[in-house]
Design a protein that fits this description.
single chain, 120 residues, alpha+beta, four-stranded antiparallel beta sheet, 17% strand, globular, chemokine activity
Length: 120
């Protein structure tokens, strides 16, 4: 009987932790579904400045395709600079075509150089 009063707080703590983990998992999934690009570039970014890119399809809480460019470092900088590109621009359409045709492994990011490989 002395064990029960000690076990009850631990049991309650376990229930609270389980409930919180479910809420946190829902919040994480919710964040993934939201739009990441608040503003997108309408201008072309020179291909020489782009290291890689990612394309995210429409999601439950984001009604647009998102293209996120990771730019090459400038002046030996270690800072990672990312920019959103509008999917409606000519460059955005070309990157989506490349992604759909050449990203056969469905990797989350894709090197821009893979889009412009020479055909042998």
């Amino acid at each position: 009987m002395a064990f029960l009063p000690r076990a009850l707080p631990l049991l309650l703590l376990a229930v609270v932790c389980i409930q919180l983990s479910g809420v946190l998992a829902e919040e994480q999934a919710d964040r993934r579904d939201r739009c990441w690009c608040l503003k997108s570039l309408k201008k072309r970014v020179p291909r020489e400045e782009i290291e890689e890119f990612s394309i995210f399809p429409r999601r439950s809480k984001c009604d647009t395709v998102e293209i996120i460019l990771t730019l090459k470092p400038v002046n030996n900088s270690t800072e990672v600079v990312q920019r959103c590109l509008s999917p409606e621009t000519k460059q955005g359409i070309n990157l989506q075509t490349c992604w759909n045709n050449k990203n056969t492994n469905n990797t989350p990011t894709f090197k821009i150089s893979n889009c412009f490989e020479s055909h042998k």
